[in-house]
Amino acid sequence: MYWVAGIFAVVLVAFSNRYGYHRDELYFLAAGRHPAWGYADQPPFTPLVARAMSAIDPESLPLLRAPAVLAATLVVVCAGLMAREFGGGRAAQALAAAAVASAALVQGAGHLLSTAVFDLAAWALLGLLVLRLLRDPAGDGAATDRRPDPRWWLAIGLVAGLGLLNKSLLIFPAAALVIALLMVGPRKVLATRYFPAAVGLATVLWLPYLWWQAHNGWPQWDVGRAIAGGSSGTSDSPIMFVLLQFGLMGPLLTPLWIYGLWRLWREPRYRAFPVAYGLLFVVFLVTGGKAYYMGGMYPILLAAGAVPLAAWLGRRRERWAGVGAVVTVNALGSAVLFLPVLPVPALPESPVLAVNYDAGETIGWPEFVRRIGSVRAGLGPDVAVLTANYGEAGAIERFGAPYDLPTPHSGHNAYWWWGPPPDTATEVLAVGIERDQLAELCAAVEPAGRLDNGLGIDNDEQGEPLFVCRELRAPWSELWPRAKHLG
After folding, report:
1. Model-level pTM greater than 0.85?
2. Residue 237 DSSP code
3. How many angstroms separate the CA atoms of 471 and 438, rounded?
């Protein structure tokens, strides 16, 4: 299992410096420069990680992504340990770890610094700890009526609290699992003082973020509604939400996790896991969640399926060769689609951009900023830069210094909280904002070109307009509330 995790980590590190920053990574770096207990669209954990990595070396993309590699590797290790909790030996543990390491979601998330990869790690740890909670005190993995050790609840509360400081989404699997335990048992694991202690510990750790949200009007709700309405580049329709469940781990692994789901249902001690899966599936489907919101459930399902599969394979080399080939093909397919394997010039003619939205969002930022800088060079000294979204603003902060670009402003998500342009700015260079929107802010709007990555890569910024805006219709103190947009 550990050698599988080691190979997985080496592969992620090897590809960590290809293409470039993702728009969210640029945003996390910017948020890290504005430390707070919360932001409009996220808790503080990932921005603080970005700030720490930037403090060590602000120019190193591999260093920025190193925590993501560690988190994804932890998911792989936890899969092997889950298989051990299910009674699997070394072969089953290695098979579970390899299956998870080959998964599209785990590879893609592990390649980028994001809240998603730490969320996967938190889910994996919680799954492992709950299995330890359900394990019999003798430690032999056998299902007995003896009382489990309730002190695992304290570790569960700690992980849940830290996970909620990374992504509030974690509240859903935590609540679903508790509800599932109440529905199908074993209920006795809840009948202990350690359970409310765990809830209290998680709540105390989460409270600073909840305070920030309450103090600022709960913007996370607005962000969630916007995502459910399709504002995100990775938002999914209900049909796609369902279909993508068969692709998150890779289509070739679908039989294995379905078998794991069935196996857990057949075991009364572990029946809460498939019930929790069903509850989460319905909740995310009805509320317009993204397909990958279900991703944290699959490592435990794969681990549950790997144990009987490894037992069936036994010492039959030809069987192991066949299963190994399936996992290898799944891993290679995932890598080509979700790691920066192909050269950038080959992307427009490949299916990568159609399958992996995030790949396109890692390309072109330096060239976009260079074009913005060329427009800025023709303007006066008192210039403000206003962008349509946080990706554009984050890119300008990262790459704008050589072009004398000022600190950008945006009404998008957390950037709105960081304030408007100065009233002293006589010209505003607008990036990605349409003319009719700018006409509400300025009496004079002049076109200044369009963004072009020069590579033919169709991403969210390609072809976006540049305008120079003059003669503000009112001071920014009056205009700024109207600039706010969440999503």
Report:
1. yes
2. -
3. 11
